[in-house]
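Q: Can I borrow your eye for a moment on a structure tokenisation matter? Would you mind producing a protein record, from residues through to fold? Write it directly below this note and I will take it from there.
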Amino acid sequence: MKNEVIPYNKPYITPDQSKYVDELISKSLVDSDGSFSKDCQEWISNQTGCLSSLLTPSCTAALEMSAIALRLKPGDEIIMPSYTFSSSASAFVLRGAIPVFIDVRKDTLNIDESLIEDAITSNTKAILVVHYAGVACEMDKIMHIASKYNIPVIEDAAQAVMSSYKGKALGSIGGMGAYSFHSTKNIISGEGGALLINDKNFLDTVEVIREKGTDRSKFLRGEVDKYTWQDVGSSFLPSEITSAFLLSQLENANEITNTRLKIYENYFHLFEGLESKNIIHRPKITKDSSHNAHIFYIMLNDSVNRGELIAQLKEKGIYCTSHYVPLHSSPAGIKYCRQNSELKVTNRISEKILRLPLWVGLTSSQQHYVYENIYDLVN
């Protein structure tokens, strides 16, 4: 184990990964929106119970589609956490909207639902929730607030494929939800994403947006005799090669998730002793959330220098990492967004979180090696 390198992430390739790609190439059908895309979309819709799902080139593209569908204009506001990836905010900034940041909960690192109502103004046009590490936000409370003020909820479920809240798939609860199939995620296609539509009022709109602003989808279904430019849109269709790669992953989604959960649980038990010493804190999963083991992290106490720890682990061949630089402290966040209040929890977790290697194929002995080195270095 001494000379072994344990990467933070290793994309999983299914045993029959090339089957559909080879079939596609043999038939020379490699453009977009073919049978593999439709099979993937059907799988997502059946798995999640959403009204409709549309594959996209990325989760970023799915979020941008949702922003267009909301008919945002300059000055409109979107309530969201600062502890997230830049796409969560930039998709709406592109439409002229202003992300309004509120703090996250220190147990799940998800948006603090108790702070949402105070951030609502006459300019609020949506609430964006981010299901961090595939763990559900408190969706009942959030949807109640949204209904009270008639504000749409968009779910950034980039990390949450195969996760659920009270039995409902994440991404299928708000008006729209976005998935990621980036190579760092559990289910991958290299790059790729999907937009889930759960509110029938968005169905026709997003079809037009995805097809360069045309009604081509209706034409392909035989509902119109020709298609024309109808509204604002862009090209949000992935290559059929991407879809063929993705389909094999989706067909193995249960096995992938169960394998990751076993690795997660092993980590959870290994680090129990360090948590009892109050040196670290393990992730918290709420009773209503069924997660997908996307990330296993530990939260370090003030006595541990994270930068030094990461460097020391790297010397041992173990690659651990931090996570987001909060958007409110970034140059673009300062320029385009605003805070509704202090973001003390956000600032603290961004300084103390340490994400550990987690990928299909990671062995128990490798996990013990990770744990033993962390234990030795923080004690």
